[in-house]
Amino acid sequence: MHKRVEGEATVKEVGGAPTHKDCPMEAHSKLKRDDNDDGFLADDRLSTLPDCLLHEIMSYLKLQELVQTSMLSKRWMPLWRSMTSLNVDQEEFKVAANALMAVKCNTARELVEWVKFEKFTDHLLIRHNVDAALLISFRLHISNSSRGEQAARWIRHLIKYGSAMVPGTPWNLKKLHISNVNLDGRLSEHMRSRCPSLVDLELKGCKCEMYEIASDSLKKLVLEDCDFRGLAAITTPKLESFAFNGGRITGKCSLVIMAPAVDDVAMSVSNSAAGVHLHGVSNVTRLDLSCIVVVALTEEFAQFNNLRDLSLKDYCRLTDSFEKLLEQFIWSSPNLENLNVCRCKEANRHTSFSATYVDEDLFCRVYGHRRYPQQEEAHDN
């Protein structure tokens, strides 16, 4: 027979796992068990781990595996409800091919899979089986973008109740990744007012009708293959990295990016006819622009004192004359080292060239004069 844990024995005595003091969470596993508690014996080392470590282990499981695992014992049953990281992925609910032999129509097959996924997710989120207020990381991936409108209610519900579970206490959500969901301006409003700890936002394949993306805490923003209608401003004072890959922006307003702390900007957006203003990213060190309209710099435009890598490519269109705008870029970037201009156009004329270490001699060869008059005089001498 196994020897049961008696009295005040510590976790380390039975399994060498961290003690309660090693875990920062409030809820810890209790080592003293009753005889009817599913026979938790001293050699059940996994169940004697603190809740925070069990949550870490469970965070690597798929959603259905997570729920199934929680049914193994009473010790595990409440743990999945208090998960801090949740990954809801429709791909997990694809029905095996042999189970759909009778369903020959693709539309019917997708419907079967969606109904199964929707029922499970409703039970998980809408019925509060997961405590949204405890979530630090949340990912929602929808395989079929045609279901994006239906899936949007999960995001709205999550944000609404995640920040309202404990009145007066801000939501601790730090990471939010969403794929193929229809979003509107309420997302931006909720991010600023109800998600003060959000640092990582990723939207993929989403259809978004919003005027602004705003957050006082966001540090990483990734927009991939998203369709934006009316997006006119990105206001993120603490943003460090911004990538807008694929997708498009439609609307009459040009996009103004206000991210004074951003270090890396990469944009490749089609159909953004109104253009993009860059005067709010003056501290950037790498700027990679493709397939977009760069609006001419204004007189108030600050210098790119930290810019070292500049890339304009793939039919990037420059307002005003190409030479004038490129000269402004180089003139305002005293530390520029790498310049790549490829397949850019002004009117019907294409221009391509690249250079490493953009010094005064290169600038002179391109424009016929030097950036700084005193260096031009020294060069003449």
UniProtKB/TrEMBL annotation:
Residues 43-96 form the F-box domain. It holds the Pfam family LRR_At5g56370. PROSITE patterns: FBOX. Residues 1-11 have a biased composition (Basic and acidic residues). Gene3D superfamilies: 1.20.1280.50, Ribonuclease Inhibitor (3.80.10.10). Residues 1-24 are annotated as: Disordered. It comes from the Eukaryota. SUPFAM superfamilies: F-box domain, RNI-like. Transmembrane segments: none annotated. PANTHER family: OS04G0440300 PROTEIN, OS11G0201299 PROTEIN. This is F-box domain-containing protein. It comes from Paspalum notatum var. saurae.
